[in-house]
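Hey team,

Filing this mostly as a record. A colleague (T.K.) asked me to run one chain through the structure pipeline before their review meeting, and I want the input and output archived in the tracker in case anyone asks later how it was produced. No errors, nothing strange. Just documentation.

Input sequence:
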Amino acid sequence: MSREFRELDTTLIHSGEVEEKIEGAISMPIFQSSTFLYSGQSRYEDLKYIRLNNTPNHVVLHKKLAALEGGESALVTSSGMAAIATTLLTVLSSGDHLLAQDCLYGGTHDLLTRDFGPLGIEYDFIDAKDPESWGSKVRPTTRAVMIESISNPLMRTGDLPAVVEFARKHELVSLIDNTFATPVNFRPLSHGFDLVLHSCTKYLNGHSDIVAGAVIGQKAMIRKINKKLLHLGGSLDPHACFLLHRGLKTLALRVRHQNQSGLAIARFLADHEAVEKVNYGGLDEAAATAKLFAGYGGMLSFELKGGADAARRFLPRLRLAREAPSLGGVETLVTRPVTTSHSGLSIEDRQQLGISDGLIRMSVGVEGVRDLIDDLEQALL
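Output structure:
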């Protein structure tokens, strides 16, 4: 089913679905077969095979993700990092140069700082809020610019329209990791970005039971990325495709609930005497992103008075929220980025970015917000 729908909720349920229900099944079956019968294909890429990302489970999922982000085509991968690494290695080659937001997910940061050097790919970090500083870092070999719609773990949002304008001016491919915002709150392609990336492990799946990634954009570019993925082998298993497909259908319901809960919790923490600082875009109603985003999701981070020692005392006191890495599921999770997502960064890099040892990141689930606030309140005593 490829027609467009008026509302995102309908798109999530019906876009990409097969017209003729297979054996009458309302839910898409799992095609757990590594290979399929040959039917006269003339190109290797057209053979039905899991590694080629074209089983029936992949095809339906690709169509739904493309419709969700408003792109021509989409590709799912075995993890968010598989999507990021494969995409970057498609648009960049040895001798090329990348501009990247200075505060990125730790895995992306490590990819650039540890793996790109031996491959002959260079990079510079930029302050995504300071467009005037970007021009001085452009080189003749600069090919792309990469940012996050909402950064991990400080919830910063750069000047997104300026990034698009800058990329067009300098003929760069613009990439944006939209994991935290989700297409419910922000659809980057409609604002001029070239490629959108997701760790589908998080909000798109939403149930903490798979690892997956995705990239969405123009058909020609996605085809190139898929060819690279065929060689790198980061394909998604059909069963994981099925779980992601299922999880997507409740995305709008989950994220809108998390928008409301995240804002309520951020306001509670901001007013609490034990809290030093709260990072949540929705607290700044005058922010430029208020015109771009429908909401700010369920991700926030905060620091307690007393720093790392206070954080260590606080986390074990929580009864409802659980201390664990990852995010975006139906259950509320908390973690210290210094011990999980950003543990690979040097102390100096973390300090420069503002990621303190006492920073606590919170992924708000879909529990009742009053219960979550009660849990935080008793832990803060």
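Quick notes for T.K.: The two ends are 53 Å apart (CA to CA). The longest helix spans residues 251-270.
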